Amino acid sequence: MLSKCANPECSSSFLYFHEGKLFRSETSSAPAGDDASPDTGMKKTARRIEFFWLCANCAPKMTLIKSGDGIAVQPAVRAQAAGL
Ligand SMILES: [Zn+2]
């Protein structure tokens, strides 16, 4: 899942943690039938944590927001930085 930039229009491969921006998404709905995860001592948990990554090129321009049970990439709007 964390193999490339979360921006669908970008094809940058995930290489280093210090490049770009890492997002964590916590979902509380367990997908039905998807029980193939290795035993980590926390089985049958309803909480899933997924990581998404924006490359150094996209991180300043894009942001990730929660969308339903997943995330969505949207242009970063400077909502709190009013006035140039
Ligand atoms: Zn990118």
Descriptive overview:
The chain is mostly beta strands and 84 residues long. Helix content is 0%, strand content 31%. It has one domain (1-30, 44-78). The protein contains no helices and 4 strands. The radius of gyration is 15 Å and the shape is globular. The termini are far apart. The model has no long low-confidence stretch (mean pLDDT 78). Zinc ion binds next to loops.
Question: What overall form do the CA principal axes indicate?
Answer: globular
Number of strands: 4
Q: Determine Rg (CA atoms, Å).
A: 15 Å
Uncertain residue segments: none
User: Helical percent range?
Assistant: under 10%
Count of the domains: 1
Strand content: 25-35%
Q: List the bound ligands.
A: zinc ion
Question: Which whole number gives the mean pLDDT?
Answer: 78
Strand order of the largest sheet: 1-2
SSE order, one letter for each helix or strand: EEEE
Based on secondary structure, the structural category is mainly beta
Q: Please report the number of helical segments.
A: 0
Distance between termini?
37 Å
